[in-house]
Amino acid sequence: MEYKIVYKATDKLLKEALNLDKQVFSKNDVGDFNTCKKWLKIEKNIYTFLVHENHCIGYINFARITDDCFNKFYDGKMKDYSLTENDILPFSKTENNRCHLISIVIAKEYRDSDAISALKEGFSRKIEKMKQAGIIIDDVIVDCVSIDGVKFVIEQFNAKFVTNSFNGKIYYSSSIYQEKRIFPTISLELLSRKNLRKASLIQYQISKNNWCGYCDLLQEVEDREKGLLQKQDLPQTYVIKWKNRCVGIIGLHLLPKHKNTIWLNWFGVLPKYRRQGIGTHALFKIISLARNLKFKEFRLVTYELWNSQAQHIYKKTMQTSEFYTNKQDWQYAIKRGRAMIFSSSLVDKRISKWNNKFVDLLSGEILHKNSIKKLKENGLI
Ligand SMILES: CC(C)(COP(=O)(O)OP(=O)(O)OC[C@H]1O[C@@H](n2cnc3c(N)ncnc32)[C@H](O)[C@@H]1OP(=O)(O)O)[C@@H](O)C(=O)NCCC(=O)NCCS
After folding, report:
1. Atom of ligand 1 lying closest to residue 300 CA
2. Range of the domain at 115
3. What's the rounded Cα separation, in Å, for the pair 239 and 191?
4. Which of 211, 253, 309, 359 for a ligand 1 pocket mutation test, highest count of atoms within 8 Å of Cβ?
5. Is residue 256 part of a domain?
6. Ligand 1 lined by 276 (C-beta under 6 Å)
7. Based on the domain organization, do 68 and 149 belong to the same domain?
């Protein structure tokens, strides 16, 4: 598509940009025209607009802010649109430029297009131009209210998670000129008869002590072969492939009775391939698959004790977390493992907490025992 990047904030573009906010943000986070105009009086170079057919279809606003304001953001104690003209500073050639990426927004209908790349490129060009003009960005603080925002700042700025804010995640980057974070190129290969053995052994190796799921994997393949599971149906399990090797497993499934919510399943990377970004990247990919299946809520059950490494990723990326303590469910897993539920919205609406609705952890224990038995019967272990 033919996009245009515009840096000059006209009233028309600004109003269109604020209309986009309404698609994406909750009421309190929607920008206000007069406030934005006041920011622009201090620094006119705050906006990067993405324009298609003469209309703004996306934008980034990025401003230099005072140290005091920067620190408040860093501590998670400042709200994006409580920024006043007193917090904004003009970009400087002589002093530190401590900046705030206020928002990045793309119109709903352009989300799956190349619009985001065009906007990112336009923004990078602007930062580069400023650098050539002697304006060096020292550090950046961002309050990400969506999982897409988190993905953007990790990939684009190699930003690090700092803390939770009022309704998002604070990310910090000490230099946006650093190499972008390049995640290993991975692909997700749907479970089939062809990769069943490999997938089952990977799943077993990662979860052999508690959560072996071989029977479910077997069932999924059989159901697909019989035509009982169509392309869009769940469960869907995938082998994570990297450099042509099968390095992990990840999937999606449903809980009976909860039609809007899609759950993460079997997430694991083999130990020797860990700590290089494969897990995070696979999680982003599966979330995007979940969104394409038109679900509104993405959640996962995890255990503080048994999945301790995964906690880092979830705390950094997912929107809400809560302990799962349902008295009707299996108390061993709840009490010994400290069961937790992390959730993120797949649509432009805040996600509510799961609030202890029944999940059925015991079925996982039964599946585990049956699966170990079946793996032995089938000669896999
Ligand atoms: C969770 C798991 C899939 C992560 O896979 P991975 O490929 O190592 O993930 P990444 O490389 O993307 O690591 C992501 C982050 O986790 C954190 N992390 C991972 N292992 C860590 C450790 N041992 N100590 C501290 N931080 C750790 C890091 O912050 C890392 O991010 P960074 O590289 O930006 O610093 C993997 O550890 C695993 O298979 N664990 C066992 C199975 C499991 O518990 N699954 C979750 C079920 S709910």
Report:
1. 48
2. 4-173
3. 7
4. 309
5. yes
6. yes
7. yes
Tens digit of each residue's pLDDT, the chain (381 residues): 799 999 999 999 999 999 998 887 777 777 789 999 999 999 999 999 999 999 999 999 999 999 999 999 999 998 766 889 999 999 999 999 999 999 999 998 998 789 999 999 999 999 999 999 999 999 999 999 889 899 989 988 889 999 999 889 999 998 787 667 788 999 999 999 999 999 999 999 999 998 999 999 999 999 999 999 998 999 999 999 999 999 999 999 999 888 889 999 999 999 999 999 999 999 999 999 999 999 999 999 999 999 999 999 999 999 999 999 999 999 999 999 999 999 999 988 889 999 999 999 999 999 999 999 999 999 999
Instruction: Please choose from 312, 321, 342, 368 the residue to mutate so as to test ligand 1's pocket, defined by most ligand atoms within 8 A of CB.
Output: 312
| C-alpha 246 to ligand 1 mean position (Å) | 17
Name which of 102, 92, 45 is nearest 69 in CA terms.
Answer: 102
Total domains, the chain: 2
Q: Which residue has the tokens 């980057």?
A: 173
Task: Tell me the CA–centroid distance for residue 272 and ligand 1, in Å.
Answer: 12
Pair (205, 343) in one structural domain: yes
What burial class does residue 228 get, using C-beta atoms within 10 Å of its C-beta: 0-12 exposed, 13-18 middle, 19+ buried? exposed
Candidate of 275, 281, 300 to mutate for ligand 1, largest count of ligand atoms within 8 Å of Cβ: 275
**Does 265 share its domain with 356?**
yes
**What's the 279 CA to ligand 1 centre distance in angstroms?**
6
What is the dihedral angle through the alpha carbons of 155, 157, 161, 166, rounded to the nearest 10 degrees? -100
Q: What is the CATH number of the domain that holds 245?
A: 3.40.630.30
24: closest CA among 172, 176, 227, 167? Answer: 167
Strand arrangement of the beta sheet that strand 297-303 belongs to: 186-190, 236-242, 245-253, 261-269, 297-303, 339-345, 320-323
Give yes or no: residues 361 and 214 share one domain.
yes
The answer as to whether 115 is a domain residue is yes
Nearest CA to ligand 1 atom 23: 309
Residue nearest to ligand 1 atom 9, measured at CA: 279
**Are 265 and 137 within one domain?**
no
Q: Does 184 contact ligand 1 (Cβ within 6 A)?
A: no
